Amino acid sequence: MRVLFAGALTGVMIVTIGCVIRTQHTIDAHIRVDIRHIQEQADAVLDYIEGRTESIPLDGDAAGDVSWRQRFLEVIHPVPEARASESLQETSPEVNRLAQRMRERHPELQALKNDGCAGEDNRGYAALRDCGALDTQEARQAAQELIDAENEDRQALYEEIARLNAERNVPRSQVERIFAQRRLERASSGEIFQLPPSGQAFDRFRNSARGQRLGDQCVPNAWVRIP
Predict the structure, then answer these.
(1) What order do you get walking across the sheet with 192-194 strand by strand?
(2) What is the pLDDT of residues 158-196, one digit of tens each?
């Protein structure tokens, strides 16, 4: 009787542990898909702001191709989700409005970055930096006003993208970090960036070619000039 009870208990424990492991794997996979989805949206928005594209595809599919996320979902779900044919511009006029303003402002902001007068922090916002080009109070004030307007639009954009992904429980802070990371990956040599805090994002950058070239300067949260 004891043997039977022990065997039954062991079986229950194995089933329970197996369920827990499978559930954890499912949760981890879901989180990765959610993050990937936001990354695709960030890339699509940044491509539009930087003038690389003339529209903002929903999942980063400029030509209607099946996205990585869609292919993944088709693997784990026997019945595939309906593909979204609309763009972020169509699903959210707010994204379109904000991205358009940031696109118009981009050349001026990029000029400040090229002069070392503006940098990108690790929360997804622009920051005024000390530089010789802003040699008058008026010039510095104009640059600060430009950056303030940019950051106001960025915050509204992050909030809107978090709202569009409400079913994924993605907070604005995570959207901010994803945009910051995507901007860092796109950085041109000479631009000033604040490196990510300790974690996976920082480890990926530290192990990259640029991170290796920075050497001892490559530390979490440090402001650096991208080599």
Answers:
(1) 126-128, 118-120, 192-194, 223-225
(2) 999 999 998 888 899 999 999 999 999 999 999 999 999
Rounded alpha-carbon distances, angstroms, from residue 152 to 51, 117, 148, 157, 159: 20, 19, 6, 9, 11
pTM over 0.85: no
Is 201 among the domain residues?
no
Q: Which residue segment(s) compose the domain that 182 sits in?
A: 2-194
Residue among 94, 100, 97, 102 at smallest CA distance from 149: 102
169: alpha, beta or left? (left if phi > 0; alpha if psi -120 to 50): left
Please give the Cα distance from 106 to 100 (Å, whole number): 10
Contacts of 8 (CB under 8 A, 6+ apart): none
Cα separation, 71 vs 94, whole angstroms: 28
Assigned domain for 210 exists:
no
Convert 86-101 to b/e letters by CB count within 10 Å (16 or more is b): ebbbeebebbbebbeb
Number of domains observed in the structure of the chain: 1
- Pair 120, 193: CB distance under 8 Å: yes
